[in-house]
């Protein structure tokens, strides 16, 4: 069975040309966006910790940080040139980054120094989440799930070795978590990852046994839970699914991205306001907890893919993606400012069409 790997940084790079990393380690101004802007590197992960502090990670080991709400950015020294896929902080000082080849980086000083932590699995890690300074999980290729109870001093393997790709993970506390992956996979744990149970959304999974599938179910790339009951996931072909009972049942929601078969890479919900981003600069929103989703892609000012989105409160959020795209909102997504990237007028250049 051919494996579909959109969460993997690998296929994302096939979509786009690999660009050279910015070599500057000093703070740079973000007042006027221009092609390349803060960096030309593709960006895959963002963690908006509070209104001042945000971290971004991406191609060739790039780590960018702001401590003034995005006015200036510092390129931090990650000590690696492997692609970094996700980042999770539990405050402005303590955070973790994961990426290809199972790399795990940790900082206790806001990124002034990043140190390697040892993963028990050699496979790519695509997502990481920490719910406090001690308890965290990361997921990735070949059914990889790794967990720490001591801030990463030791990591243990919680995966079963399933030959599947796990793309994203969300925990609401030390016990309750969910992960999503290729072919519509959803798993849930009640005990901090010691045991995982399979969940399904019948609306996206063929009724026949997988050996008789005529087409693959859509892979899921992003998952977000607001509490132990209410969660959302998104993925291929513009699919959005939701649950109000911790995943005992999942329902498919109407998504404006489905009409164009636009893959959605990440989803976020805060106090009933939903945001999802994906291919071709797609941005869809909800103001009623996901009952109705509307397309507002014109607000992103880009036609390139967006890979991750995060909010620290109901107003302040960042989105990142192809060719160093960095977007910020201060009003809950009503409008977005392009800090870095190629604005839509430039992205219409026929020479760039192959990267959309």
How would you describe this structure to a colleague?
By secondary structure, the chain is mostly beta strands. Helices cover 3% and strands 37% of the residues. It has 2 helices and 29 strands. It has a 5-stranded antiparallel sheet with strand order 1-5-4-3-2, with no helix packed on it. Strands 6-7-8-9 form a 4-stranded antiparallel sheet, with no helix packed on it. A 4-stranded antiparallel sheet has the order 10-11-12-13, with no helix packed on it. Strand 26 and strand 27 form a beta hairpin. It is globular and about 50 Å long. It starts with 8 loop residues before the first helix and ends in a 9-residue tail after the last helix. 53% of the residues are buried.
Task: Outline the secondary-structure elements.
Blueprint: H1 9-15, E1 28-29, E2 43-48, E3 54-58, E4 63-66, E5 72-76, E6 84-89, E7 95-99, E8 104-107, E9 115-117, E10 125-130, E11 136-140, E12 145-148, E13 156-157, E14 166-171, E15 177-181, E16 186-189, E17 197-199, E18 220-225, E19 231-235, E20 240-243, E21 251-253, E22 264-270, E23 273-278, E24 283-286, E25 294-295, E26 306-311, E27 317-321, E28 326-329, E29 337-340, H2 344-347
Antiparallel strand pairs: 1-5, 2-3, 3-4, 4-5, 6-7, 7-8, 8-9, 10-11, 11-12, 12-13, 14-15, 15-16, 16-17, 18-19, 19-20, 20-21, 22-23, 23-24, 24-25, 26-27, 27-28, 28-29
């Amino acid at each position: 069975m051919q494996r579909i790997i959109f969460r993997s940084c690998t296929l994302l790079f096939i979509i786009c040309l690999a660009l050279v990393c910015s070599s500057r380690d000093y703070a740079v101004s973000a007042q006027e966006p221009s092609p390349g802007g803060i960096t030309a590197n593709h960006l895959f992960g963002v963690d908006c910790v509070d209104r001042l502090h945000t971290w971004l990670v991406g191609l060739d080991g790039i780590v960018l940080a702001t401590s003034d709400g995005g006015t200036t950015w510092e390129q931090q020294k990650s000590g690696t040139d492997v692609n970094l896929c996700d980042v999770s902080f539990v405050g402005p000082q303590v955070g973790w980054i994961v990426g290809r080849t199972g790399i795990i980086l940790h900082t206790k000083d806001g990124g002034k120094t990043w140190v390697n932590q040892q993963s028990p699995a050699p496979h790519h890690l695509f997502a990481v989440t920490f719910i406090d300074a001690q308890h965290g999980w990361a997921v990735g290729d070949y059914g990889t799930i790794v967990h720490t109870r001591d801030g990463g001093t030791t990591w243990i393997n919680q995966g079963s070795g399933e030959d599947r790709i796990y793309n994203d993970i969300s925990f609401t506390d030390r016990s309750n978590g969910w992960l999503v992956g290729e072919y519509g996979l959803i798993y849930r744990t009640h005990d901090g990852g010691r045991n995982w149970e399979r969940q399904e959304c019948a609306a996206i999974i063929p009724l026949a046994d997988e050996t008789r599938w005529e087409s693959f179910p859509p892979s899921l790339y992003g998952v977000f839970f607001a509490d132990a009951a209410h969660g959302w996931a998104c993925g291929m072909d513009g699919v959005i699914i939701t649950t109000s009972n911790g995943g005992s049942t999942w329902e498919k929601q109407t998504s404006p991205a489905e009409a164009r078969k636009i893959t959605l890479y990440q989803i976020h919900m805060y106090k009933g306001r939903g945001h999802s981003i994906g291919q071709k600069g797609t941005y869809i929103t909800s103001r009623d907890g996901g009952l109705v989703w509307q397309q507002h892609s014109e607000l992103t000012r880009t036609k390139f893919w967006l890979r991750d989105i995060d909010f620290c409160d109901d107003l302040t959020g960042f989105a990142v993606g192809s060719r160093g795209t960095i977007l910020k909102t201060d009003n809950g997504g009503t409008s977005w400012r392009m800090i870095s990237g190629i604005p839509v007028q430039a992205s219409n250049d026929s020479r760039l069409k192959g990267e959309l």
